[in-house]
Design goal:
This protein is an alpha/beta fold. Helix content is 45%, strand content 12%.
Amino acid sequence: MKKRVYIVDDEPKIGNLFTNVLVRDGYEVESFISPTKMLKALDESKRPPDVILADMMMPDMDGLELLELLNEREVKAPVIIMTAHSSVQTAVEAMRQGAFHYLQKPVNLEEMRALLERALDLYGAHKELEQIKDEQQAKYAIDGILGASDPIAQVRDTIRTLSDAANTTVLFSGETGTGKNLAAQTLHYNSPRRKKAFMEVNCAALPDNLLEAELFGYEEGAFTDARDSKQGLVEIADGGTLFLDEIDSMSMALQAKLLSFLESRTFRRLGGVEDLEVDVRVLCATNADLESSVKEKSFRKDLFFRINVVNVKLPALRHMGDDVLLIAKHLIGEFNRDLGRSIKGFTEAAKKKMLDHMWPGNVRELRNVLERAMIFATGSRIEASDLALARPGQLGDLHGDDASFHFPLGRTLKDLEKAYIRRTLETNDSSYADISDELGISKKTLWDKRKRYNLDEVVDR
């Protein structure tokens, strides 16, 4: 499709000249002798221009007034101002108000061609970015949080209410695999901050020193390998949202720095001396009981109160009744597209098997089970035998003939936890990340408990 150019100049000869040149260059051109007529055509047109060439000095309004009216209409097309030598300063002011650039009269045609190409490249990139953002917003529609049960309906209602509270800190809590990340992104993309960045960091995935550098950035020379300055996620997310997943795994020292930032919205890069201020919304997530962590003095009470302004609890799949079938139906549609299959649904026996299962891994487990079933299913519907579900007594995908766990009465909870973690590590050859997910704790917490209970003799991973 040809790129469309609007030309606005009160001298018809100039408009005709530029029109002839640009039509020969392959553009679709509309020429106007006044901004008023151009604005009328713009309001009535179903296809807006890709770029606008406008004279600075015209009888009914000048270029600055035209820019103001274009901004009111939210016209995204870049505007190139044409000006006489004596009005160059005014053209520079137009650029401050949003004009892409200016051409000095008499216009050099080669310069005009080059500037048009640059403007169109910029506009194309801008439209592509806007399309991506629109797709993200559609992907994270609030009604995209599936489920008809009361617990999930309450989650949607809460997110809908919080969408307008663009500065409120929110804590998402729930078991692993319940969709805390999805809920956080849904909140962001339905808030006034949706046009800015959504930056996520998993606090359990990085050691404390790297996590601090990732969050707050660093200056050149702050540590041995800091050869250049680097922005942190807090800075990059300015105007948008910062999502801190598994915040319970953050060290006490870093918790104190995070609290200071939340209170002041200012921070210093590592090795820096300048206080930097940002406007960012902070969302947090945890699968731990933070109130218990506060009592055990492994999480700061003041930080807990600061991030727990609103607590959105994501329900476990086993508490959502028939929603498991609703979500499974949606996932079948996804996997049909991704895997090139045409599975129509489930047999009644498969439905019963899914409803009877406890889903310790929640929606994440459901997705994994269905993906496997979709790959190996031989019929048009998923059979019960296609669903590789853990047996009662198993935790995820424990290996070995005896995956059950027995423990005598009369022992302490500490003894029980130690024995259960030992048994899980001994009978599961998955990675630490997978095992921590199955246990419902962070990888860092699993590592700490292994050290605390002297389980170093268990095979290292």
